[in-house]
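Field reference: sequence -> structure
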Amino acid sequence: EDAESFRTPTLKDALKKKDDINAQLAKKVLSLDRDDHFQVLEVYPSSREQEIKSAYFLLLRRFQLQDIAGSYGQEKDQQLAQQLLDRATFAYRSLSDDEIRNAYMEARKKKRPYQAPPRILADVEAQKGELALGAKRYQEAMDLFTAAMGLYPDEPDYHFKFGLAGYQKAMDETPKDETLPDHVRNPFLKTLSVNPRHDSARLYLGYIAKRNGQLKRALKEFKAAAEYNRRNQRAQSEIRLLKLRKDLS
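Structure field:
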């Protein structure tokens, strides 16, 4: 069935389903249009940041949204799950930002619509990218971070996470006796062009150089990461390990 012909099922449709999870999913999606951010996540307006985060991830587990394609065999159910994931993530990212949360609550109090800034819409795509990255769905993660960058190109972490997904994908696909392709470095270099002191970007440039046998270059990158962030223990550890080696090349 074409996506254009898909419609949100009625409550009667939902109750006919034999699969309890799918029935719950349909009923949850039915309520999205009338629910505010707090109701979507099933939290109170007084809930603190950690409570909101916990509620969001509980919702993901409850409706199996971390891996929609693997959890739902029917296209309609997948579309419902994606709809819920988008709405829940939008609520989570909005309520996790104090400025946005305050503006949203003010608009809600005055009973007027609130238009989210592009940064929050980008955060929604990036948050979904994080889920895909955590599940090792690297190409999907890269696509989602690309969408986030398109909405808000000035956030260095979007570029970094895009690079991280590409790096992990390349590590999986490149035989151990072959060097990683040079283009894997590009997103980390882009990250540094947005934020020259992004220590994690330097750290992964060091990992790439080390993986490719460029040990002097790797040491330089690890030192830069440690200089930018003295609490970067991974960079400190890599520096100690490389200094023990006599084959720096």
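Note: DSSP finds 14 helices and no strands in the chain.
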